[in-house]
């Protein structure tokens, strides 16, 4: 018998990261990866640098200093928090731990690609719930829950559609799940959401036995490069994750930078305020060019392009790249007529709007 990977693995389309270079253009604005235009807090950078004398030793294995800082910040129990090398790692470890071959894993169409990848990597069956006008109708998701459902990934807000699910709908979904299924609420962009009917997931995790919330320092905290995420879990799920994760999965510089970043409230509040101002401005200005833009509660926008030759998303991408504006193509999200734009610095936002207006007028 020849060596073959587990069933499902060869069906995976490898994750495609946002591009960061535009050939032949010296000055680029990278608006393709939902990063913060401000980067990390200067206090996080100082903490990272101060970790230098510790680089020769293994870090404390459970990321205790970071778990305790997160617990104090949000009023949670530190032994129910598990930190990861980005929240990607935790999303993947949850599937590795619970999905058996042929188990069903539910998630919305046009959702973050890691859900499908980690399902197929565990020989599970991805069940993609079609959206209505790119929004997930929770009733449609509930209709697909079956005895075979083992895990449900709910990106809230969702990337790349920038829409969200109200807390009442999250509760309805949870109530419809069998006890043998795990609801994973991926709240990577939650810091950006300002809606009265939104809750990141803390309440649901605190009051149930089969809900996990994942969070990240990659977005509003501007620490994508150092890879830190965390999960708030029922105790028995934290116990499982602690058995399967790598022994030192969050390095010491990352732990210290994240602790300092979390403590710098003024920095993150400024990031969120900037995002609100410029997200609304971008939506308004891009709509004025005649393009359709989805409403957004996050730090990115989904822009639809006409199917007409010369006006398509591929044409727009080429036009923008030539001007150093790098957006994210959405073909891998089954949205080939769309590009995703991350809210950037004032300069980048203005340059993006100027280029989009020129494209539409060309
Ligand atoms: C919806 C969603 N979840 C999770 C992540 C993973 O973030 P990280 O692994 O950097 O914590 C991303 C990153 O793009 C995302 O868009």
What does this molecule look like?
By secondary structure, this protein is an alpha/beta fold. The chain is built from twelve helices and 13 strands. The strands form three sheets. Strands 2-8-7-6-5-3-4 form a seven-stranded mixed beta sheet, with helices on both faces. Helix 1 packs antiparallel against helix 9 (252-263), helix 2 packs parallel to helix 9 (252-263) and helix 3 runs parallel beside helix 4. The longest helix is centred in the last third of the chain and has 24 residues, at 265-288. The chain is globular. The N and C termini lie far apart (58 Å).
Number of strands: 13
Sketch the major β-sheet: 7 strands, mixed
In percent, how helical is the residue content? 25-40%
Order of helices and strands: EHHEHEHEHEHEHEEHHHEEHEEEH
Q: Averaged pLDDT, please?
A: 96
- Please report the number of helical segments: 12
* Poorly predicted parts: none
Compute the CA-based radius of gyration.
21 Å
How far apart the termini lie comes to 58 Å
Strand content of the residues, in percent? 5-15%
> Which small molecules are bound?
pyridoxal-5'-phosphate
Derived structural class: alpha/beta
Strand order of the largest sheet: 2-8-7-6-5-3-4
| Basic shape | globular
**Assembly state of the chains shown:** single chain
């Amino acid at each position: 018998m020849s060596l073959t990977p587990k069933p499902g693995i060869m069906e995976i389309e490898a994750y495609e990261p946002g591009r960061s270079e535009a050939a032949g253009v010296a000055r680029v604005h990278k608006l393709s990866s939902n990063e913060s235009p401000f980067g990390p807090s200067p206090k996080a950078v100082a903490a990272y640098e101060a970790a230098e004398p510790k680089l020769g030793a293994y870090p404390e294995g459970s990321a205790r200093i970071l778990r305790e800082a997160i617990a104090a910040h949000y009023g949670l129990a530190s032994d129910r928090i598990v930190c990861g090398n980005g929240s990607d790692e935790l999303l993947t470890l949850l599937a590795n731990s619970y999905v058996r071959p042929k188990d069903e894993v539910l998630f919305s169409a046009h959702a973050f690609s890691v859900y499908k990848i980690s399902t197929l990597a565990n020989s599970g069956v991805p069940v993609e719930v079609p959206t209505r006008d790119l929004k997930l109708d929770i009733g449609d998701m509930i209709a697909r829950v079956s005895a075979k459902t083992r895990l449900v990934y709910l990106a809230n807000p969702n990337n790349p559609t920038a829409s969200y699910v109200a807390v009442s709908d999250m509760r309805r979904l949870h109530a419809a799940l069998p006890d043998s299924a795990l609801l994973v609420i991926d709240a990577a962009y939650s810091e950006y959401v300002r809606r009265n009917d939104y809750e990141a997931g803390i309440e649901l995790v605190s009051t149930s036995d089969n809900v996990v919330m994942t969070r990240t320092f990659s977005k509003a905290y501007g620490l994508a490069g150092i890879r830190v995420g965390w999960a708030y879990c029922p105790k028995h799920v934290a116990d499982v994750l602690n058995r399967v994760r790598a022994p030192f999965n969050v390095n010491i510089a990352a732990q210290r930078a994240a602790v300092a970043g979390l403590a710098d409230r003024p920095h993150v509040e400024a990031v969120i305020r900037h995002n609100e101002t410029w997200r609304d401005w971008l939506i308004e200005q891009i709509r004025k060019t005649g393009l359709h833009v989805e409403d957004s509660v996050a730090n990115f926008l989904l822009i639809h392009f006409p199917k007409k030759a010369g006006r398509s998303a591929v044409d727009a991408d080429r036009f923008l790249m030539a001007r150093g504006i790098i957006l994210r193509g959405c073909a891998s999200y089954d949205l080939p007529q769309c590009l995703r734009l991350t809210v950037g610095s004032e300069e980048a936002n203005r340059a993006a709007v100027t280029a989009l207006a020129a494209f539409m007028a060309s």
